[in-house]
């Protein structure tokens, strides 16, 4: 993909709708030249605001759709912006379920301008079904009490912490944002259901005995829409360890107010039971909290209370040390 990117925010009204844009800003800032918002947008990346022509003049190579609405469909209101990106000579990069080539006239415009349409959310062809075969190497999977609460950030931060300790480790991306950051991966939510476990096995193949694959989690076992994606990833990644991600202020599943967020004890029990189908030794080794809304004192109390209750190390991947959870992984 041609870099740097102009990150398109459309009319996003909440940061959770712009996970892709925030992920790239935080983990690949050198690849981001600016942001482009439409009227009504209430989200900012705190990057320079510019349109495609201005971004092209700054050296941008692609207009990247940085928002991911429920269902992953390209909104009709965005289409003029995509044509504007093409007119400015930018490739269009999308992580939506909607194929860019299916938007009337877009492929012809791209061809005439000599630019590309890049759909990231396209799984490889001929994926196998899962086998459950024990693979060499070590694996950690990030899991969650809900969606959009830090599984990707936790996986990226753990990968860095392991490498800083001299451990051979790779981040394995399972969603469009992770793939854009890592440059490879499999978009698990676009895989046909029969092949999700097999895709997860392909995502994290046999490795050296001391090597760790840190697999980015997707969805949640407790989400009425996305639990199926999560379960296939749990079975196929065959994790030796899991880190449970949680937002302490979230009382119900996102976009599903009739489904309360489970307790940490319940979530740990159900994730371990699910994972032990393909790895009897699978265990949760730590709790990753999103503490962005907490003071330092509130964070310290939350960690102390949780560690006392569960006997597991707690951390915030963007704010605190990860030494204790890495020690537990490697023990």
Automatic annotation (TrEMBL):
Transmembrane segments: none
Species whose genome carries this gene: Stenotrophobium rhamnosiphilum
Residue ranges annotated for the D-glutamate N-acetyltransferase-like N-terminal domain, each copy included: 45-123
One Pfam family this sequence matches: DUF1611_N
Span of domain D-glutamate N-acetyltransferase-like C-terminal: 130-325
Name this protein carries in UniProt: DUF1611 domain-containing protein
Superkingdom of the source species: Bacteria
């Amino acid at each position: 993909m041609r870099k740097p990117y102009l990150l398109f925010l459309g009319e996003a009204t909440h940061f959770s709708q712009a996970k892709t844009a925030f992920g790239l800003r935080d983990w690949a800032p050198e690849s981001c030249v600016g942001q482009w918002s439409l009227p009504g947008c209430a989200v900012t990346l705190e990057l320079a605001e510019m349109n495609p022509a201005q971004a092209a003049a700054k050296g941008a190579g692609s207009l990247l759709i940085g928002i991911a609405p429920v269902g992953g469909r390209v909104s009709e209101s965005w289409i003029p912006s995509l044509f504007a990106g093409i007119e400015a000579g930018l490739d269009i990069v999308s992580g939506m379920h909607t194929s860019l080539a299916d938007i009337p006239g877009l492929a012809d415009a791209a061809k005439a301008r000599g630019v590309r349409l890049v759909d990231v959310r396209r799984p490889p062809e001929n994926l196998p079904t899962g086998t459950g075969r024990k693979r060499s190497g070590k694996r950690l999977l990030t899991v969650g009490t809900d969606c959009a609460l830090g599984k990707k950030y936790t996986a990226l931060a753990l990968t860095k912490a392991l490498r800083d300790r001299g451990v051979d480790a790779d981040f394995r991306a399972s969603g469009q944002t992770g793939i854009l950051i890592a440059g490879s991966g499999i978009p698990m939510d676009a895989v046909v259901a029969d092949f999700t476990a097999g895709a997860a096995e392909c995502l994290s193949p046999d490795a050296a005995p001391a090597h760790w694959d840190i697999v980015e989690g997707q969805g949640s076992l407790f989400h009425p829409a996305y639990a199926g994606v999560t379960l296939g990833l749990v079975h196929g990644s065959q994790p030796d360890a899991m880190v449970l991600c949680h937002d302490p202020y979230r009382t119900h599943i996102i976009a599903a107010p009739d489904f309360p967020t489970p307790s940490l004890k319940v979530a740990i029990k159900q994730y371990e039971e699910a994972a032990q189908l393909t790895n009897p030794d699978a265990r949760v080794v730590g709790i990753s909290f999103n503490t962005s809304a907490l003071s330092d004192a509130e964070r310290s109390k939350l960690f102390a209370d949780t560690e006392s209750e569960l006997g597991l190390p707690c951390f915030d991947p963007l704010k605190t040390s990860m030494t204790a959870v890495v020690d537990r992984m490697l023990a």
